[in-house]
From TrEMBL:
Full protein name: Transcription initiation factor IIA subunit 2
Signal peptide span: none
Any one GO biological process: transcription initiation at RNA polymerase II promoter
Species this chain originates from: Megafenestra aurita
Family note: Belongs to the TFIIA subunit 2 family.
Top-level taxon of origin: Eukaryota
Protein function: TFIIA is a component of the transcription machinery of RNA polymerase II and plays an important role in transcriptional activation.
Principal subcellular localisation of the protein: nucleus
Annotated CDD domains: TFIIA_gamma_C (cd10014), TFIIA_gamma_N (cd10145)
Subcellular location: Nucleus
Amino acid sequence: MAYQLYRNTTLGNTLQETLDELIQFGQITPQLALKVLVHFDRTMNQSLAQKVKNRLTFKAGKLNTYRFCDNVWTFLLSEVEFRDVSELCKGETVKIVACDGKAVPPTKDD
C-alpha cells in the first residue's frame, strides 16, 4: 500500500471533494472512488521518487522532536534554513515527513 501523504495537498483535497460529489450524485460508487484514491497515492509517490531531481540542503537551529514509526521519519525543527542553488528560505517551525518513495509498488499501468 502506498503512502497517503499527498491526499492532504491541494490536489489531493480537490480530488477527494470531486469524488465525494460524484458519489453524492450517483455517478460513481464509493468503491470506484477508493480505487481512484489508491491509484492517486501510488502515482504521486512513484512520480516524485522517479521524476523529481532537485535537491535541497537545510540547517536547523534546533531539533524539537523526531520519530520513526512504520518506516516513516517525522522531524519537528525550529529556526530552519533551506538552501537551493540560487535561493535561501527560512522557517520558524518546520515539520518534515520522510518516507521511502522508491519502495512503492508499481501500478498496473506500468
